[in-house]
Amino acid sequence: MQEVQGEKPGKAKKERTPMPEQPAEERRKNFNEVTLGYTKEDALAEASRCLACKDPKCVEGCPVNVDIPGFIQLICEENFEGAIERIKATNALPAICGRVCPQETQCEARCVLGKKSQPVAIGRLERFCADYEREKGVKAPEVMPPTGKKVAVVGSGPAGLTAAADLAKLGHKVTIFESLHKAGGVLSYGIPEFRLPKEIVRQEVEYIEKLGVEVKPNYIIGRIKTLDELCDDFDAVFLVTGAGLPNFMGIEGENLNGVYSANEFLTRVNLMKAYDPEYDTMVRHGKHVVVVGGGNVAMDAARSALRLGADEVSIVYRRGEDEMPARREEIEHAKEEGIIFRLLTNPVRILGDEKFNVTGVECIKMELGEPDKSGRRSPVPVEGTEFLVQADVVIIAIGTSPNPIIFKGSEGLEQNRRGTVVADEETGATSKCGVFAGGDAVTGAATVISAMGAGKKAAKAIDAFLKEK
Amino acid sequence: MAYRILEKEEIAPSVHRMIIEARDVAKAAKAGQFIILRIDERGERVPLTIADFEKEKGTVTVIYQEMGKTTKQLAKLSAGDYLEDFVGPLGTPADIRKLGTVILVGGGVGVAPIYPQAKAYTSAGNRVISIIGARNKDLLILEDEMEKASSELYIATDDGSKGHHGFVTDIMKKILDSGEKVARVVIIGPPIMMKVGAGVASPYDVEILVSLNSIMVDGTGMCGGCRVTVGGETKFTCVDGPEFDARKVDFVQLMNRLAMYRGEETEAVEKYEAECRCGLH
Ligand SMILES: Cc1cc2nc3c(=O)[nH]c(=O)nc-3n(C[C@H](O)[C@H](O)[C@H](O)COP(=O)(O)OP(=O)(O)OC[C@H]3O[C@@H](n4cnc5c(N)ncnc54)[C@H](O)[C@@H]3O)c2cc1C
Ligand SMILES: Cc1cc2nc3c(=O)[nH]c(=O)nc-3n(C[C@H](O)[C@H](O)[C@H](O)COP(=O)(O)OP(=O)(O)OC[C@H]3O[C@@H](n4cnc5c(N)ncnc54)[C@H](O)[C@@H]3O)c2cc1C
Ligand code: SF4
Ligand code: FES
């Protein structure tokens, strides 16, 4: 197909329909959602770009295999209810996925339109359908008659919520145990309001409760009950405890006041709403903030710090922009908001004053050397290039490992050297009978949709296991 | 879900005891562990040691001192009121075994966490010598309970209004000097007291444990906010502790980290008290 410039009347648009969003100047001062969502007209225009391919590559790119051409067709027919139903047949959390999935590397990366011009904005359309449904009021879902089997889900992140929904629909009695006071996992404590409004997470949790799932917050497995005790009480257990143990660099000054792990900073800001004066949560509102890392977590921390009123926020990342693991869109948004990117730079030590407060970060320039085991070119320090960045808040966002609490009192649950639970990729089955695991607890920090994919696969395997039992 | 306050009592000026119905926590609780509570949706997550628990009744006792906004707010609640969240038991339980003679030292509200340990060490067959102290006799807490739970009880007050005139650590030193074979000393109280106590006990051939109260958020190892340096390594108080080998703890760092929010705290208290005078709160 030949590219045509501009728009022809009556013909499908060649260019993607842009996403309406808050202007950068405004949004950098508030925690409201950055992107505003498609209008009906936007959605129809964008949906009309889809070619409804016979052999849709986009579906293969989706970890939960949403029937993408199917739901987009229904949008074209203005059957938005049908569209959301089609999505929900395989994806229990579309309002969330439509906002935070890295579509550009998944479904949209495979879209045939992407070869010549821009792929269909699948994520934005998904979000449109989910938001449409939320405004109309979510329909009470159907569930199968009770099977009498009980399943415990440990962790209420996307993997847990997805599996719980699927298992409840199959008639099993599901209880979710969550150690924090609110369900949602990273969706609640990590990803900021301006990217994923907490009201949406709350409604998704409510939907799962409507299916008959019981959510028990403030309930830590490994402390209140061990995994072994849980196995006695339930017919099957699904471990989805995430990767919530923050890594530190082990450099000088890391325990100074004003140095946060991204988890602490983001939990205070998101879960505990430190930006809202009505809440008692404390957090340092830095004037000069340095964030170390290059993933979504670093972007979220930097943009949150900016919104708390910082004069200058910079991201220090040891490789180049192309190597940054963060979503493209988030990098762009961060740049528009004025976040400074210090690439090929690594912190060497953190400096403080006599009162133990952070005053700055000593950094060194890096260059990319030979590819390492991961296939990425490894950064090497360039000697003699040290320089100082002023800072009163430093946020470390260099990754997380799985939380070990779950292994306390769990005979025979295999763990590998990185601290993750060893589980079968297809079924989630672990070394312990009746115990399945998935999400970040198995893979290490990954994505919402891969966690959901693991939740779906495990739900299927757990159902089969329960039928055999 | 909410957690009901069954009893509430001011046991010393600005020090309160509260018994809360929390079945799951009570069932699993062990000496040395703590809980995190939140008064309401807008509240902070505040860690408090489990001062007592009754498994059959499903109750947990906490003892707290009015410090900042949250504990002042907590002090205003009474029996019949509810707390929004009450999560626990958190932390690694104290390592309680039969060791022989154990000295337990508690200062101020630090006596609260010492009390369940006294009971546990005693029932594990140890000779428990307890030393409790406060600034003056009015601020002493749990005297009768400690008397019952210990083989011997000593009291110290800064002003001499009761017991020894001076510090708990003076008594501890005297016992260690007496040549009595002591296997372990556990010191719990304000950080400065633990630091001094650890210093005093250090030269003796005895294991010294302290229970650290770093600033916490989740209490499960997720945020990394509670980190302390122990033996040159970074540890998370909530999961690796709260008890650590006193000789290895970097107390200066701990005290500096505890002062992190001092400015904000003063502001919060001032704001809270100003609001309270309006008669609406
Ligand atoms: C700041 C941030 C931004 C991100 N941005 C994106 C993004 O834009 N797009 C994307 O796709 N991915 C993103 N991710 C990654 C994504 O959020 C995770 O991969 C995903 O949430 C993993 O899901 P999960 O269900 O495995 O675990 P989690 O979401 O981590 O949930 C695990 C839950 O288990 C609970 N838990 C842990 N231990 C216990 C226990 N012993 N007992 C009871 N409960 C327990 C935890 O409290 C937590 O609520 C981001 C992550 C972070 C931190
Ligand atoms: C494991 C542990 C057990 C504890 N047990 C007890 C106890 O049994 N009785 C008791 O009275 N106190 C206990 N504390 C201390 C208690 O948590 C704090 O005094 C309380 O948080 C003060 O709250 P506030 O809002 O009234 O005061 P704030 O105005 O918030 O602060 C007063 C002081 O409390 C400390 N503090 C503030 N927030 C926290 C936090 N989230 N975590 C830890 N410390 C904080 C700071 O040092 C601060 O200077 C314990 C702390 C920990 C970590
Ligand atoms: S690959 Fe692109 S054009 Fe084809 S069906 Fe999927 S979204 Fe539509
Ligand atoms: S309180 Fe968050 S890691 Fe200890």
Explained architecture:
The complex is a heterodimer of chains A (469) and B (281). With 469 residues, chain A is of the alpha/beta class. The radius of gyration of chain A is 23 Å and the shape is globular. Chain A has helices spanning 24-27, 40-47, 57-61, 68-76, 80-88, 94-100, 107-110, 113-116, 122-136, 158-169, 186-189, 198-210, 227-233, 262-271, 296-307, 328-336, 440-443, 448-468, and strands at 150-154, 173-177, 214-216, 236-239, 245-246, 259-261, 288-292, 312-316, 340-342, 345-352, 358-371, 377-381, 387-390, 393-396, 400-401, 435-437. Chain A has a 5-stranded parallel beta sheet with strand order 3-2-1-4-16, sandwiched between helices. A 5-stranded parallel beta sheet of chain A has the order 6-14-7-8-9. In chain A, strands 10, 11, 12 and 13 form a 4-stranded antiparallel beta sheet that branches. Chain A folds into 3 domains: 22-134, Alpha-helical ferredoxin (Fumarate Reductase Iron-sulfur Protein, Chain B, domain 2); 148-242 and 401-466, FAD/NAD(P)-binding domain, CATH 3.50.50.60; 245-394, FAD/NAD(P)-binding domain. In chain A, helix 2 (40-47) packs across helix 4 (68-76). In chain A, a hairpin with a 5-residue loop joins strand 10 (345-352) and strand 11 (358-371). By secondary structure, chain B is of the alpha/beta class. Chain B folds into 2 domains: 3-90, Elongation Factor Tu (Ef-tu), domain 3; 101-259, Nucleotide-binding domain of ferredoxin-NADP reductase (FNR) module (Rossmann fold, 3-Layer(aba) Sandwich). Chain B has helices spanning 23-28, 69-75, 111-123, 143-149, 168-177, 191-201, 237-240, 251-258, 262-277, and strands spanning 3-12, 15-21, 34-38, 46-49, 52-54, 59-65, 82-83, 85-90, 101-107, 127-134, 152-157, 164-165, 184-188, 207-211, 227-230, 233-236, 243-245. In chain B, the strands form 4 sheets. In chain B, strands 12-11-10-9-13-14-17 form a 7-stranded mixed beta sheet, sandwiched between helices. Chain B has a 5-stranded antiparallel beta sheet with strand order 5-6-2-1-7. In chain B, a hairpin with a 2-residue loop joins strand 1 and strand 2 (15-21). In chain B, helix 5 (168-177) runs parallel beside helix 6. Chain B is globular. The relative contact order of chain B is 0.13. Chain A binds chain B through residues 179-181, 189, 216-220, 223-225, 244-246, 248, 250, 254-255, 257-258, 260-261, 263-264, 267-268, 272-273, 278-282, 284, 355-356, 403-405, and chain B through 1, 24-25, 27-28, 38, 42-45, 69-70, 84-90, 217-218, 220-225, 227-229, 234, 239, 253, 256-257, 259-261, 264-265, 268. The structure holds flavin-adenine dinucleotide (FAD) (2 copies), iron/sulfur cluster and FE2/S2 (inorganic) cluster. Chain A: One of its GO terms (molecular function) is glutamate synthase (NADPH) activity. Chain A: Its EC number is 1.4.1.13. Chain A: It holds the Pfam family Pyr_redox_2. Chain A: Residues 149-455 form the FAD/NAD(P)-binding domain.
